[in-house]
Amino acid sequence: MEKIRNFCIIAHIDHGKSTIADRMMELTGTVEKREMKAQLLDSMELEREKGITIKLTPVTMQWNGYVLNLIDTPGHVDFSYEVSRSLQAVETAVLVVDATQGIQAQTLANVYLALEQDLTIIPVINKVDLPAADVEGVAAQIMNLLGCSREEIIEASGKTGFGVDKILDAVVERGPEPRTLNTGMTRALIFDSYFDDYRGVVLYVRIFEGEIRKNAEILMMAAGVKGLALEVGVLTPKMTSRESLKTGEIGYIVTNLKTTREAKVGDTVTLAKEPALEALPGYKNVLPFVYAGFFPVSNDQYKELKEAIEKLSLSDSALRYEPENSPVLGFGLRIGFLGLLHMDIIRERLEREFGLDLIVTNPSTNYEVVMNNGEIREIKSASDLPDPSEIREIREPWVKGEIILPKSMIGNVLNLINEKRGHQTNLSYIEDRAVIDFEAPMANLLTDFYDQLKSATSGYASFNYELDGYRAEDLVRVDFLVGGHKMDALSVMAHRSEADGIGREVTKKLKEVIPRQNYEVALQAAIGARIIARETIGAYRKDVTVKIHTGDRDRKAKLLEKQKRGKARMKRFGKIDIPSEAFTVMLKRD
After folding, report:
1. Are 389 and 348 part of one and the same domain?
2. What tens digit of pLDDT does each residue of 374-426 get?
């Protein structure tokens, strides 16, 4: 036990976690030079392309007679629950900060998570070899944040490998040995799980006490599901099987389970014959709070879309989906996500890995509706809202956010927060940077808050958020009518004070994307029966008098009257073809 060290690397997106992990594997001889490639632990093509870690990966290394278990965690806010579970599985956190960018929002969020779990934090400044590196400035920020001394901060470069041996030495010297619970019961924490097409569900676990042997019958305590440990072992980073996993070790268990819903991240694994009396703390059921409709461009692909989502949900227990039918778009699925990046990744995977052509409707969040009889209903889209006369109040989700930015740009960002119906709760400083804490409604941050924040701060700000419960607000459903027909797929929930603006904005955009017809088409926004905005798409005008060669006024009037009657009839029976872009107008604000 005293020869084992469990640690993870935490950082903001793109601060060089995966590159440092690559150098560690090279230095410790875990991976041979010829097998080495950049971002070795990022196995998905999307991860390499975007330069972000989506799925966390553990790896076991040997260094100076010690066994080092490393977990490479995702940096993005959407996956913060997974990060918190992998932090619970280790005793030491290596905090990586980019020498050119300094401390950013997710650096702070991850530091708070690590402090909550009472981990030993080893600060590292990465990319010190770059010409733009401000090592002393960033060191001052880290000292201010952690209260450590300058000597404790390690300077390194993931690209050249400089200083990486010092990080490994620091993990051995400063990091404590694995903590145990000594209750005499076998317990292990699942910090990640995925579905393998050929083997079933594979669990990544940290054994807190006891031993799990090959072919043992195991029990997931939160899910209440029994399974078999068909194979156990460690990752180097290839799977290397062993007879058993013991206290303090990190490794994998191949099970006979069919979906990750039966073995969720944060659950406790124990032996079915001698089950533990209580589970490890911290497990929670992660629920999606961003919803969007996914429709195939051609209805023939609906079955393929459903099969593709079923396959992805085997590996991703946070994905929730249900069938949805739209009169315009046909059959599709309404899918729930952890956040916008999660939605983006799933959409790209569906298009690339399964070759689907998709229309994605405006993302929305879920609302709680309190009925007059006290019943609470959860609705996932505006079209599900019950009759307003039966509703006592509507509650919407609010978030607590944190923005880190240069001091000179505070004014622009405070204006942006106010525009989104949010309010600032605190303002503090770390050296030359400001930290703004604020609260705001989730729905207003969904579409383009991140883009607007980046443009207001020339790309220097970083942003992090977490859900902060539901609050009752004066919310209304805004419907959009095209030629007098209500389009359910376009309906949105909005605050009464913002409804008029949204109505005007969306009708203007619809006017640009819906093609002109031979007759006039009215585009209207309405709250209930009250029209709040209107745009008109003008008709094509065909000159019916061109075939009259005389200047006879009566004949011209007669033809024009006939055309007018024809247009009125077309308006009654005409079908308007609505292009798929109309359903994503809310996403593209400008």
Report:
1. no
2. 899 888 878 888 888 888 999 998 988 888 888 888 888 899 999 888 999 99
Is there a single domain that holds both residue 152 and residue 296?
Answer: no
DSSP class per residue in 248-308: T-EEEEEES-S-GGGS-TT-EEEESSS--SSPPTT-------EEEEEEESSGGGHHHHHHH
Find the domain containing 564 and state its range: 477-584
Query: Nearest-CA neighbor of 312 among 277, 360, 349, 340?
Result: 349
Assess contact for 76 and 61: CB atoms under 8 A: no
Instruction: Evaluate whether residue 181 is within a structural domain.
Output: no
Q: In 3-53, where do the E strands start and end? A: 4-10
Residue 498 CB partners (closer than 8 Å, separation 6+): 421
- Structural domain includes residue 552: yes
Alpha carbon distance, N-terminus to C-terminus of the chain: 58
- What angle, 0 to 180 degrees and rounded to 10, lies between the N-to-C axes of helices 449-456 and 410-419? 160
Please provide the DSSP assignment of 129-178 as one string.
Answer: TSTT--HHHHHHHHHHHH---GGGPEE--TTT-TTHHHHHHHHHHHSPPP
Asked if the model's pLDDT at residue 171 lies above 70, the reply is yes
- Helix (H), strand (E) at residue 536: strand 530-537
| pTM greater than the 0.85 cutoff | no
What's the CATH number where 498 sits? Answer: 3.30.70.2570
* Dihedral sign for Cα atoms in the order 431, 139, 124, 142: negative
Give the total number of structural domains in the chain: 5
Calpha distance 87→263 (Å, rounded): 18
Verify that 484 and 390 share a domain, yes or no: no
Residue 590 lies in a domain: no
**End position of a domain, from candidates 435, 453, 473:** 473
Cα 446 to chain center, whole Å?
11
pLDDT at 184 over 60: yes
Helix axes 135-146, 105-116, angle to 10 degrees: 40
- Our measurement of the distance from residue 437's CA atom to the centroid of its chain's CA atoms, rounded to an integer in Å, reads 20
Domain annotation covers residue 589? no
